[in-house]
Structure prediction request, 685 residues.
Amino acid sequence: MKLWKKLFLSMLCLFIGFINVTIYLTVQTVYRTNLNRESSSALIEQTYFITDLLADFQALNGRKALNEESVADLFQRYSNRLEMKMVYLKIQYNRDVYFNNLPLPSGDEESVEEGKRNYTYRNSGGEKYIVIAGNLPGNLSGYTVTYARCIPGFLKEWTGLNRELLVIQTAASCVLIVCLFLMLRRMVSPLEKMSETVEDIAAGNYRQRLPVRGKDEIAQLAEEFNRMANEIEHKINTIEAEICNKQTFIDNMSHEMRTPLASIFGYAEMLQQTVTSREEMDEALEQIMLQSRNLLRLRENLLELTLLRQDSMEKEKIVLEDLISALKRQIMSSGRYGKYRLETDISEKYVKANAILLERLLSNLLENAFRACNDRTSPVVLIESARTEEGGTVICIKDNGKGMTEEEMKHITDPFYRVDKARSRTEGGAGLGLAISRKIVENQGAQMSFDSAPGIGTEVSIIFP
Amino acid sequence: MAKILIVEDEKPISNLIFRNLQLAGHSCRQAYDGKQALAEIENQIPDLIILDVMLPEINGFALMEYLKEIPVIFVTARDSLSDKIKGLNSGAEDYLVKPFEMQELTARINVILRRYGKNVTEFTLKGVTVDFNSRIARKKSLEIDLKPREWDLLEVLVQNKNLALSREKLLDLAWGYQFEGESRTVDVHIQKLRKKLDWEDRIKTVYKMGYRLDTKEYEV
Prediction:
């Protein structure tokens, strides 16, 4: 993973660089401060020394004894005294060195301006020295006095300290590297995991989800991601179900069309190719007509099913009594259901709906109700209407027919769904009746529900607003 | 020729198949659902079963369990690939999708009967016996000489007896489309057959259709 490597390296460089620089600067500052402190005290000492020296020189001068010997001697005495304090001296008159016990390689100290003094630092023999040089004032300005004070242990201390610090730095860096590494890995691993999960989902495993730990941005991202995955899974499922439905629809439609076509084709072929008796010819022609009619009806139903998707048809106030009586007459006169009883109980006279659609709807439902009662000894179908609380109308159709199971009820309004799996023609139609009914109900803004028990009967309720 | 059981719940279709197979010379029975089918089989084992998949009571596929030794042709409106595979895998000899032409059904039936050794290779009409295996035709005891092309045509006529076949169909079934003749060739050969077998009144010309071998006396 490149991100964490980038993070790691950049943070590492930053931290180490930062730490090192800080330590270095700190050390330098402390060093300087220490040195300055030492220098200040050395400078002060040197001032006192020069004062004393001047006094002594004055005395010598008074006795006219100021010469190389006496100066050297003087300095020797100074030296002895100051050696304990680790101070070394050198004095030269112009170019002649009268005394020098500086433990330093000889070098020309630059001549200094009168009244001013220079000081530098020198290292020698493992020790640091502050070397202060200056000319004596006045008529003694030919003399250059060098005062070197050792700062004992300074160098050693500092080298030692440096070494220690180096060790500390290295150790700290190593620890930093390890800790940073682990920490970054840990923080970034959820991202890696996310990437894996995303790959998994993209490969088709839509059920996968990310674990949500904590409350930080990554956790938030995981949550959002999970939500998105939910959506996707849901959509995919819906789409797959849709496709499945469509496929079933097409399969069923195809089947419904094949059977009448097979009949028509078969009988026509028979008429064309074989010698047929009068009866056979009549039967063949009758079948051809019958199946052709079936196909036409199927086509009409399908058209209805698709057309109903569009805008709702206009509604009016319909007098239920009239509509139902008309339906009753129609059904009873068709002869098929002569022995059936159709009872009515209209307590709510009016319903607001489209007349044509309502007639179609009730006709469909009644047809179904009658069919369900086919094998009953005393089939009874009841239509009733009542007023709902919200001011609408509810119409119920009850029958004491063979009823259906929970499972069948779920699918009963699917296009082409037949409870009879063999799709036998004698007992039922193509399976579009209830699909159309549902479409009509939706179109009118109403609600349809079923209640049924196998062997007992079925009740269909439609609530019109 | 063979004893065939037709198991189909749609009566018109069942009747159609029944009629056509009877014309082709088979003796047929009909059953309208799975239970009935089993009863009929118990009664008398058929040589071949025409079976519809979508049946009430027991569906076609399930029925296959009971029909292990009897050749079965599935006849159905379901044409999805998975159904076809399922059908053939369940042990059926063949799978036909409705609507189909009768000739196709009769041809496939013949193939299966031949495979099971149940087809009849002899045919007799008006004193003339033809043997398709040995390709010998006899009247009384006199051998009739028929050319190979004539045999091909004769076989097709006999297999589809009582069915009218167009010239194109005869051409295709007898000699295949590789044969680059005109349909006039059919006329010529038909004439020859009529003459040689003395079947002038049996090989009928069907107006606007083609030819038909009639095996029954009809009153039109």
In short: The two ends of chain A are 62 Å apart (CA to CA).
